[in-house]
């Protein structure tokens, strides 16, 4: 067990973060740095252009980087420091970087939530006959066309709402075509930090009336991007259609996703269809690794608590160094169930 930390003590643990500059400026706010420091955790930027071995020592690493060079660095680091938790496993993160695999986990959940019917179009040639493709996948208009790759680029968020057959659409492959579900224009974004889940509401696309699908004077498809990135104005709270899903349900979905994905830091987008025929039905449409946590209320405490949970059971690196010892000589053991090493996650033995 780690000794108690007092606010006056200097930080005992060092958490290294490897994030793109935009993510650093959005998430590593002074309020987070101050709260973490107050609780004994120093946050230090990793310079990904330099060898990790020349930096640190780190007690915990968190990361969201897309390049292969970083992956090789992490693997080497994990081999040298098997006791230092790396959050999260690159292989587990990879599943979220491809919309063809991102939502596979949902079908294994034991909660009533699903994914709208969808089909992956890997290249334009594979879609030579769009009608046949849609019929085979039993997809019905309207659809949303989403780029397959999630790579941090603006293009990976370039979506199209497709009302009817659109000749040029499939030339944009590789993409996912997903059925659009009417959901009252409100989306539930659930931020997951370890075992905490926080649901916020965002505005979303309005419902599509049936007549729009047959309106030949209007465009067959329209582009949009980043539609749900900002908080919903708080004035409509009373509207029943906007009511948050039950907290217990949100927690259960979050727990199932965390276990199924083997990840600790992500958010997911959930929408609710309300119909007389089916009642309320929930759909998960997107899962994002290491999202914009600063948009989540209380994120500073949530992240700091999470870091401390991952660190508990480890001793700070600087306390382990005996005279003449190198930085990399001591493998530290994590308390069972509290921290998860990179290789345990890679091999799928550990679950969040
Ligand atoms: N199947 C769907 N039915 C209805 N609306 C949808 C559907 N899929 C996506 N949307 C709407 O389109 C928006 C963008 O889709 P999605 O979340 O997949 O894209 P994204 O660019 O990955 O988003 P983020 O910024 O959260 O990463 C959603 O926030 C939601 O408003
Ligand atoms: O930067 P890329 O890799 O494109 O990923 C984005 C996610 O797709 C978005 O979901 C994040 O915003 P939200 O936290 O509002 O979901 C968004 O967070 P940001 O507000 O920090 O940019 C990003 O994490
Ligand atoms: Mg989204
Ligand atoms: Mg996304």
TrEMBL record:
In terms of superkingdom, the source organism counts as Eukaryota
Cofactor(s) listed: Mg(2+)
Q: Where does ATP bind?
A: 99, 146, 178-189, 204
User: Which positions fall inside the ATP-grasp domain?
Assistant: 105-315
Family matches, as InterPro entries? ATP-grasp, Inositol_tetrakis-P_1-kinase, InsP(3)kin_ATP-grasp, ITPK1_N
Name of the protein this chain belongs to: Inositol-tetrakisphosphate 1-kinase
Which residues constitute the signal peptide according to the record? none
